[in-house]
Fold this protein.
Amino acid sequence: QLQLVESGGGLVQPGGSLRLSCAASGFPLGDYAIGWFRQAPGKEREGVSCISSSGGRPNYVDSVKGRFTISRDAAKNTVYLQMNSLKFEDTAVYYCAARRYGCSGSQVAYDYWGRGTQVTVSS
């Protein structure tokens, strides 16, 4: 069974850091592009970052550039999202999703989704 499981969310103060993990089971993540998405209360889900199967230059939404870093660990079949300098507006449920090969700007292009992990930035 193909499955993605996110972890690493939690409560953090502004300026703090968290590292989210997206662990895959049932398939090798190396064949898939992995996107991170987030949905804040009352807002639509938005794309945050994506890394292709080749591990080429990742992409980021403008609001997180310079603060978030996506990476993959093939040995652990896991993709990470390192989040630094967190802001109140980063509060959301974060999801990872997978699709074959390349990143896509369309969420419907992703075949597999995790259930999400809550990130709350609060003082």
